[in-house]
Amino acid sequence: MINSTKIKAIIVDLDRTLLHTDKSLSTYTLNILNKCKKYGIKIMVATARPFRTTKQYCDLIDFDAMVVSNGARIICGNQWTDYGICQQSAKHLLTALSRYPNLRITLETGDCAYSNHPIEDYETILSDDLGGLSNTEGALKILVHLDNEETLALVKQALTDDLYFTIAHGYLLQIMNASATKWNGIKAMLDICNCSYDETVYFGDDQDDIEPIKMCGLGVAVSNGIDDAKNVADYITESNDADGVAKFIEHWILKNS
Question: What pTM does this model have?
């Protein structure tokens, strides 16, 4: 049984969790989240998206804090903290991967995204010098499309000890500073906002969401999520396109508030 009076914070993943597949938010979901804030429940985000593609939703929901770029950047009010890839490691990795011209690579600086090939459904600036750009603009994340079975082995061979990777949506390899995990970002965000883990509900769907689902006081997976996320969740709610997050909040958290 859920003790709704204990919930002080709600953290949501965006893509395939809170957002519909077409990236929209329903009026129903917006009303539920705004109602949470009226009851003093903090609404936070933890997403793989960079801030520049997350901020469009800030006009709809007054988020109390955000973890973006998988934990590489934490935003709480005017306080911004970055855990990017160090310059030497970024250049080493990009130089090593550049030996394979067919790889589709994207450099996320936080403010811009650069790629060596056009990337469908993702706005990037084409560049043939990603390594040089990482020196001048920094690197929050490096993304590699898993277009064939050999790609993963090539990336593993090129990784330095201070980096790690996760795989999103089954095809997008995300490389980050070893400290830049969603869960590390969430811990820092909750500390800044004076919220404890056991007073927090987390909603997610993918590999990066497994640890937060397990570690927060209440972990909820959407029904369209991967099996590994659903297997560790305390509850499974309806899909993102069925407003599963908002329905769970309305039924289990707000009904007794």
Answer: 0.90
